[in-house]
């Protein structure tokens, strides 16, 4: 069963990752529109979307969202460590378990 700290970390990590993903999605949508003059494809799997556009969108949006989530979770873990004096339970190495 998860401890209280583990539950707090799970919620904190999830909220930070979701917030970062939403922010990244908005930023990449805007950047795509500025760069291409078109709205991003709503569904890259749609056969009416050109292949180059679908591949470019999937690459750019996937990378941006993944990076934003990773950076947000790293910041959340750092904040957790500063607040509690140790890393979140999921990030502790076996020799660091409190």
From TrEMBL:
<dbReference type="Pfam" id="PF14019">
    <property type="entry name" value="DUF4235"/>
</dbReference>
<dbReference type="InterPro" id="IPR025329">
    <property type="entry name" value="DUF4235"/>
</dbReference>
<keyword id="KW-0812">Transmembrane</keyword>
<keyword id="KW-1133">Transmembrane helix</keyword>
<feature type="transmembrane region" description="Helical">
    <location>
        <begin position="54"/>
        <end position="72"/>
    </location>
</feature>
<protein>
    <submittedName>
        <fullName>DUF4235 domain-containing protein</fullName>
    </submittedName>
</protein>
<keyword id="KW-0472">Membrane</keyword>
């Amino acid at each position: 069963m998860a401890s209280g700290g583990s539950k707090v970390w799970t919620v904190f990590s999830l909220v930070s990752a979701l917030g970062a993903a939403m922010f990244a999605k908005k930023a990449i949508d805007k950047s795509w529109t500025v760069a291409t003059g078109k709205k991003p494809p709503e569904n890259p799997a749609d056969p009416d979307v050109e292949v180059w556009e679908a591949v470019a969108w999937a690459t750019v949006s996937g990378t941006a969202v993944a990076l934003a989530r990773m950076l947000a979770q790293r910041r959340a873990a750092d904040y957790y460590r500063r607040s509690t004096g140790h890393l979140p339970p999921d990030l502790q190495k076996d020799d660091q378990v409190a």
